[in-house]
Amino acid sequence: xxxxxxxxxxxxxxxxxxxxxxxxxxxxxxxxxxxxxxxxxxxxxxxxxxxxxxxxxxxxxxxxxxxxxxxxxxxxxxxxxxxxxxxxxxxxxxxxxxxxxxxxxxxxxxxxxxxxxxxxxxxxxxxxxxxxxxxxxxxxxxxxxxxxxxxxxxxxxxxxxxxxxxxxxxxxxxxxxxxxxxxxxxxxxxx
Length: 191
Fold this sequence. Notes:
Elements: H1 2-10, E1 46-54, E2 72-78, H2 84-94, E3 104-112, E4 118-127, H3 137-140, E5 153-159, E6 170-171, E7 177-178
Parallel strand pairs: 1-5
Antiparallel strand pairs: 1-2, 3-4, 3-5, 6-7
């Protein structure tokens, strides 16, 4: 009789076995808090200062409490729910270099750490052209997800593909050689 009860208990739907089993003393899984939606018609946007540099991020030493890097600066107004894809589109709208094919934009947040020192954290690499239907996880990150606060900076590195051009030059989308220039300089290609 006892073996029959054990077999009945083992087959009981109340008891889960394998990976579905949970010990009684294990903590319950907590759901992530729901994302807070921003009503963009009523909430005021904040100023976002974006510093763009070609082929790499600015050095952390260039960010001090009194100075900022001497490179292309964009002053954008946006909301806390702005995604990195939206930020990429805003940078592409302002800088013609960011519109090139196969161009990648790497974003980093520059902020003061707990000790008061300036810190930089890379947060995502986004392709300039939106080729994927399912956006990668980095494209869906919002400024709120990155714990961005008003007064922090965004450092944007614009990366271009290097294609065996003579002398380390970049080859443009139609095969013409383009000399490296600063972002937004509107460098004309030699013809």
